[in-house]
Amino acid sequence: MGAEPLDMQEALLLRYPIASGDMKFIEVNQRDVYLRHDPTSGMVLRGEIPDCGPGCYADLGQVILEYALTCEDCEDPLRSGAHAETFAKNLGASFVTKIQKGMPGATPAARVAAALECLLRSLKVPFTAERAGDETRYVMDTCPLCEAAEQTGMRGRVALAHEALDELVRFVLAILDPALDVQLPATPHAAGEGLELVISPAR
Q: Are 25 and 70 in contact, with CB atoms under 8 Å apart?
């Protein structure tokens, strides 16, 4: 099962400061998150650093982890929840606007499928989409956030990153088709465990 291909203009969706490696919030640069056309996979969300080039590209998993690191005092559940919600609203609103403009005559179901598959491609892990009755299951071979944490060493706030991904998916769906619900498991995961995202009618 594949979504309707996206053919939209590239655009800047979000900008945020990058925290320093010593875990104290010091603005050392900025990350720009773009909607980009990847010649091999199609439209994706990609993080870039101004004037740095391909060596500084970041997939969506790394972007979410980086954003989580910018949260001061996130040991407080209320603060961490607000931080995840802010990320979802800031990135999700810009992304949804591009989906709506790029697919003006599409059904809500087609927009949802295109948006979700774009987000999953942006996480850079293999996935399959399976339809069973009124449910659609997006099955990822591995957890993209756990993979990104291992590759980058940004393991400090993986749980918050999962919360931010969950908020992002829910926010996008709530705008594109509020009649749908999403199930996305939270951390912790067993080593090497995959991730499953289930879309179904809201009950």
A: yes
- CATH pick for 11-201 out of 1.10.1740, 1.20.120, 3.30.420, 3.30.1380: 3.30.1380
Task: Identify whether the C-beta of residue 82 lies closer than 8 Å to the C-beta of residue 91.
Answer: no
Residue-level pLDDT at 41:
87
Q: Return the exposure string of 20-55: e unless at least 16 CB atoms fall within 10 Å of the residue's CB, then b.
A: eeeeeeeeeeebebbbbeeeeebbbbbbbeeeeeee
Dump the DSSP string for 176-187. H-TTEEEE---S
Q: Look at residue 26 and give its three-state secondary structure.
A: coil
CB proximity list for 77: less than 8 A, separation 6 or greater: none
Task: Show the DSSP H helices in the chain as ranges.
Answer: 60-69, 77-102, 108-122, 144-152, 158-176
Give, rounded to a whole angstrom, the gap between the first and last alpha carbons of the chain.
24
| Amino acid in position 26 | I
Residue with tokens 């053919």: 7
Q: What is the pTM of this model?
A: 0.87
Q: How confident is the model at residue 153 (pLDDT cuts 50, 70, 90)?
A: confident
Task: Please tell me the distance from the alpha carbon of residue 98 to that of residue 93, in angstroms, as a whole number.
Answer: 9
Q: With contact defined as beta carbons under 8 Å apart, do 44 and 118 qualify?
A: yes
What is the pLDDT at residue 136?
Answer: 94
